Structure prediction request, 255 residues.
Amino acid sequence: MVTAGGDGSIRLWDITLNDHPIRVWKEHTREVYGVHWSNVNKILFCSASWDGSVRIWNPERPHSLKAIPAHQNCIYQALFSPHEADVIASCASDGQAKIFDLRAPTALQYPAPAMTIQAHSGEVLTLDWNKWQPYIIATGGTDRMIRVWDCRMVKNPSSTTIQPAATCTKELMGHEYAVRKVQWGNFSPDKLASASYDMSFRIWSTNVPPGAPSLQAIYDKHTEFVVSCAWSLNDATLIASSSWDCRTHIWRAPL
Prediction:
């Protein structure tokens, strides 16, 4: 298991041992906000830090394999694609989501972004890859919006855009404060869950008839910020939420 620390460290643990981490890395210069194992190349994981970098790691190596200066500001999340072993998406306080292809040839020691998306008017706190549709991502931010992006539908670059950007195919509005977490369902390509500082988490469908609401359910039993939600890997209707109220709730979602 890998954990991220506010002191800039990353620690690797063997859960069969009780005392100390089996490895500690200290390459980030600010808080490490998250880590993510690749589901395709399972030996690798990435880290996202407030120092503006994404780093790629192999737990057998004493140093990171690659450091990517992905953003100029705090990075809140970096995720390997569940479909492509060498593709990573990141989001940050600059309002952008970026996609990197580690295979791309470059004269630098790190890849340039393959795509930059000006995703939100405020900070982008969260993103997630769709598990069924390889080029679809969702983002959530401090502007209270959730947006769904199709990275195949490329705009013509404008004078203010260096890289092509994905097309927004859906905007989901309803949260009253910042969206802290989004996660696509594991059993359906259109189901999306979101957690917010408005003390609720919500379930949406991105595939509804014209005029029908995308919002499927609201769960508002927490008494503090809801900071995370996660779908069950085994049950299509089961979802968990966690909050600053020190509670984790398990819910049944509508089909």
Observations:
- The chain has a mean pLDDT of 92.
- DSSP finds no helices and 22 strands in the chain.
- Residues 7 and 35 are 14 Å apart (CA to CA).
